[in-house]
Structure formats: C-alpha cells, structure tokens
Amino acid sequence: MSDQTLPQAPETSGKSLSPQTPPVGLTRRKLLGTAGATGLVVGAAGGAAGYAAAPEQATPLSSIGSGQEMFHVKHQPGITQGLQARGHLVAFDLAAGAGRKEAAALLRRWSETARRLMAGEAAKDDDTDVARDAGPSSLTVTFGFGHSFFARTGLEKQRPVSLDPLPDFSSDQLDLSRSNGDLWVQIGANDALVAFHALRAIQKDAGRAAKVRWQMNGFNRTPGATAHPMTARNLMGQIDGTRNPKPAEADFAKRIFVPESGADSGSGLGSNDPAWMANGSYAVVRRIRMLLDDWEQLSAHAQEQVIGRRKSDGAPLTGGTETAEMDLEKTDANGDLVVPINAHARITRPDQNGGAAMLRRPFSYHDGIDADGVPDAGLLFVCWQADPLRGFVTVQRKLDRGDALSKYIRHESSGLFAVPGGAAEGEYVGQRLLEG
C-alpha cells in the first residue's frame, strides 16, 4: 500500500455511455431496468442511487450497467480507469508442449472475447448467458506476460530487462504456487456477474493451450455508494492512496507507460524496452494480507500515527484537507515530529523516493474466516509503472527498512508482468511480440 490515490475523474481510453444511451453492440442483452419508477433516488452529484423496492417493470439500463470501455485503444483498458466494484486476477501457465504458435492463437481468442464482452455482446462461442441481462458495466480485460513466458515460447531475446524478477524483501512470506505465471489476466467491472462471466469466458478460451496457475477475487466500493466521489477506503478503514499520479499531470505518461519506439522518455524510463512494449506498462501484483485483529486493537490515534493521516478524512496529521501538502518538518509542543519518521504516508511520498511513482489500482479481498475466527482479508495490490525498478522496487525497499505499517500486513504472493500497449483495430494483444 502507498500514499497515492486514483483520480476521481480519470482520463480513460474508452468512453462511458449516459443512462439514456444503450451500449453499442448490445446484441444479446435485454435492456432491463434495475429500479422501478419510484425506486431510484439520484444524489445531488448524479452518482448515488438507492432502491426502495424491487423493479416492477423494464426500464433503461442504469448508469452503472451502461458504462462501456473500448478495447482497441492506445493503452490497454484496466489501467487508467477508476476503481471497479469487482475484479478477478488470474495467471496461466502454458500447457506442456504449447509454444509460440499456441500462445498466439490463445491471445487472438482472448482478444476477440474481451472485445465482444466489453461491448456488451455475448462471447463468440458457447456463451454461458451469465450476464445476458446486463450491460457492459465498464468491463475491462487486460493481458500481460510473465518472465517465464519468453523461455516457453522461444522469445528470450524479446524479454524486457524490466521484467527481471523482483528482489526479495524481508517482509515477504510468499506462496510460490500463487505467484508469477506465464500469462496474466486482469478483469474488472462494476457488476459481479459481468466480471464472473468474463472470467469464465477467458478460462474456457484457454482450452488445452494453458492452465490456471492461480486466481484471486477482489472488490471495491460500488460507484454511487457515496454521496459524492471520494478516495476509497481499504479494509483497515483508512482512506487509501491520496497521492496517486493523475493522467492530467504533465509527467504522467512517462512515469506509467513505456514510450513509443524511438521516442524520448524524458527521464530514461522504459528506454531499454523492446519495440513491442511501446505504450505498455509493467504491473506488479501482490496479495497483501491485513492482520486485522492486531490492527483493530489499536486506538484510532495509534492507527493515525502508523499511517500519518487522519482516519476520518485522510488529511495529513499536520492539518488541512486530504489533498493538503504534508509538512514533514512540523513538530508538536514536545519537539516531536507530528508525522512520525516511520509513518507509512511519509515513507511512500514520491519526493522521499527520488520521484518514484506508481499508479495504484487495487482491489480488496476477503477469502473467508479460519477456525480461530481470523479473517483472511486484505489488498490485491496492483500498481502500474514504466519501470518497476524505479517504481515499485524503490518504494518497497524503503518500506522494508522501517515502515510502521509492516507490523500489520503480510505479503503472501507476488508477480511482475509486462503488459503491452493496446491492440489496434484488426490486431490482438501481443501480436507485435508473437508475430514480430
């Protein structure tokens, strides 16, 4: 976790349809309503909705159902979009005997399925009808390649230097069976059935070419659940991630995306990447378990000292609002730093890490309660950067040396994936690698 937040109105490579506009390509789905004429209450911000009763008649899709993201874009979908209510992360290993040819055919199938489902259409072959009655619900499907993929396909010379394995960290307690993988898929949507439908379609498309290595399920607050847009809270109850890079910032692209071939990155980011990674990014994926029983024994004041921000509104302990600049030198009447030297928010600040920045786009998770009543819950941490060594690794090394939050979390799985740029019309994701 880090002290960064997703933009509230991020620039997206796709588009969102208004509640009055049916999604393009919605060929197999009925435009069924999600509220009766008297059941829908729209908040002042136009995004909050509540339901007084079950729907009694068909009405146009709600704003959540009609949201649509485009598949054929410069950067793959699922990176710059805001947090989605439901997510699935899944890694695959190529089957024994499968190589470059089989991988290319698989990515072609996956890309076509993702394009269709993101448009609100049925899968091409043997659709399960799980999401027949829903709109696209801002579905995104994102594909990446792991370090091992390149040896399996004879493409070692095309493996990016930036994909070298992450170093070991002292706080790691990694389950290798739930880490890494040849291929990685991220699925996100604002409806749980739409997300599951995509997961099932992707799994079926894998056929005999690849088998699931691991799979994880996550969630976030549903859009419209608050009276106005706000930074999400994590399962510790903290407003999580107030300083995420924003697409409107001048240096956003060079921090998050690999530049196009021959382009000046502005700071060397991504300069060693092969041409097929143009407009792509690197995803670090970590399953971070939160030790909630220990955390919840702390007073609210003690929790704020660990984080360095007020729990109520996310403002720095030095005062102001959530977005106020943190005064790292401010002291109290006793001469002690107001923001402790080991506070999480202090350590993760880009200006304390040589400008290192990551675009965080996580999901919370809860995988049940064990026999002792301890919840297996926490964060499916996903962050994006043009160079993982200058992004995630730089920050995590510093956290490893003395983050107050480390006592209350445990990193249990890890992965690093090269995510190429978006597929152009008529192309599939990864085509420039697999057919180049």
Automatic annotation (TrEMBL):
Binds 1 heme b (iron(II)-protoporphyrin IX) group non-covalently per subunit. Residues 76-220 form the Dyp-type peroxidase N-terminal domain. PROSITE patterns: DYP_PEROXIDASE (PS51404), TAT (PS51318). It is found in: Cell envelope. Residues 1-26 are annotated as: Disordered. Its EC number is 1.11.1.-. Residues 1-19 have a biased composition (Polar residues). This is Deferrochelatase. It comes from Streptomyces bobili. The gene is efeB.
